[in-house]
């Protein structure tokens, strides 16, 4: 599909994406890159990052891959420092890294619960916290008048109750909450825009195939008036809108 945005709307910008090598994160990497941004992709699995970077580069995108786990503060600091060292600045942070599995609450150990909270919620906060100094207006390599921007990817699981997703629901509720708090504090103090995107079921992602067995998917399609579900493209376009000047006054939460 052809983008409705001009190809150079992010020219000169630098973006770091956690979980940016697969699923929704990869599609955001691709679309930000296609619209002019330099892309740094952070992830735990080297072969997945290498393959994503190769594909991005083959499309003429300036991209690098950086191995790291958002649960480790040292990794977060190192990856951010390497991104700024390589590209000279940081304008956009997208937190798309997430952990997930279907499990009834009674079978989920407290450590399993904590693991997902650590990746999704604490990891998102850690990345934001470590990125702050680079996103402030006037930070190294940036023009002095504009702060950077952050996108946190959450979900809609926690709006009601979702079977076998107690850990992820709690984690994503925390992500939405910290998005609002950072939008308030950093938007006011530093002109940094912090937005969240809360995707519903998105076709052709790990979350979709792992969490939506075929019988639930058929019901979902029956219940959806237009008989179709969201695509990674929709989320990437929402992200593009929010990080570009089109979304210049946006600051808080967008539900898709
Ligand atoms: C029950 C499980 C489990 C499972 C892990 N645990 N998998 N419990 N069922 N299937 C428990 C373990 O027993 C352990 O607790 C604890 O979690 C940590 O497990 P580890 O394997 O040591 O953790 P780690 O290697 O760090 O892996 C974490 C992970 C991750 C969360 C399992 O590897 C993962 O899920 N990766 C997939 C990423 C993914 O699918 N991303 C897409 C997300 S989609 P004990 O007590 O035994 O020590 C998404 C969309 C949401 O987020 C919205 C969709 C609509």
List keywords for this structure.
alpha/beta, Rossmann fold, seven-stranded parallel sheet, 7 strands, 46% helix, 13% strand, binds hexanoyl-coenzyme A
Helix content: 40-55%
Low-confidence stretches: none
Structural class: alpha/beta
Bound molecules: hexanoyl-coenzyme A
- Number-wise, the strands total 7
Q: Going by CATH, what is the homologous superfamily?
A: NAD(P)-binding Rossmann-like Domain
How far apart the termini lie comes to 19 Å
Q: What's the CATH class label?
A: Alpha Beta
Task: Please characterize this protein's 3D structure.
With 256 residues, the chain is α/β, with parallel strands linked by helices. The chain has a single domain (14-202, 232-251), classed as Rossmann fold, CATH 3.40.50.720. It is 46% helix and 13% strand. The protein has eight helices and seven strands. Helix 3 runs parallel beside helix 4 (110-135) and helix 4 (110-135) packs parallel to helix 5 (166-190). The longest helix has 26 residues, at 110-135. Hexanoyl-coenzyme A is lined by residues 98-101, 103, 108-109, 111-112, 115-116, 155, 157, 168, 201, 206-207, 210-211.
How would you summarize what this structure contains?
With 256 residues, the chain is of the alpha/beta class. It has eight helices and seven strands; from the N terminus they run βαβαβαβαβαβαααβ. 46% of the residues lie in helices and 13% in strands.
Layout of helices and strands:
Elements: E1 14-18, H1 23-34, E2 38-43, H2 46-58, E3 63-67, H3 73-87, E4 92-95, H4 110-135, E5 149-153, H5 166-190, E6 193-198, H6 206-211, H7 214-223, H8 232-243, E7 253-255
Helix pairs in contact: 1-8, 3-4, 4-5
């Amino acid at each position: 599909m052809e983008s409705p945005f001009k190809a150079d709307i992010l020219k000169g910008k630098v973006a770091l994406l956690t979980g940016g090598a697969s699923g929704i994160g990869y599609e955001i990497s691709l679309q930000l890159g296609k619209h002019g941004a330099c892309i740094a992709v952070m992830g735990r699995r080297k072969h997945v990052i290498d393959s994503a970077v190769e594909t991005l580069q083959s499309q003429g995108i300036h991209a690098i891959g950086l191995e790291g786990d958002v649960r480790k503060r040292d990794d977060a600091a190192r990856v951010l420092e390497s991104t700024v060292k390589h590209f000279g600045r940081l304008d956009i942070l997208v937190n798309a890294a997430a952990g997930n599995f279907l499990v009834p609450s009674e079978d989920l150990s407290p450590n399993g619960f904590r693991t997902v909270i650590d990746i999704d919620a604490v990891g998102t906060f850690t990345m934001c916290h470590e990125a702050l100094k680079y996103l402030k207006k006037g930070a190294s390599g940036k023009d002095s008048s504009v702060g950077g921007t952050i996108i946190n990817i959450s979900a809609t699981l926690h709006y009601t109750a979702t079977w076998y997703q107690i850990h992820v629901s709690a984690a994503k509720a925390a992500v939405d909450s910290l998005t609002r708090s950072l939008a308030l504090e950093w938007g006011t103090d530093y002109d940094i825009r912090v937005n969240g995107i809360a995707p519903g079921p998105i076709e052709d992602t790990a979350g979709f195939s792992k969490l939506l067995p075929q019988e639930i998917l058929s019901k979902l399609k029956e219940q959806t008036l237009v008989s179709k579900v969201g695509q990674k493209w929709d989320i990437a376009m929402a992200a593009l809108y929010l990080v570009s000047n089109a979304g210049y006054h946006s600051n808080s939460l967008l539900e898709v």
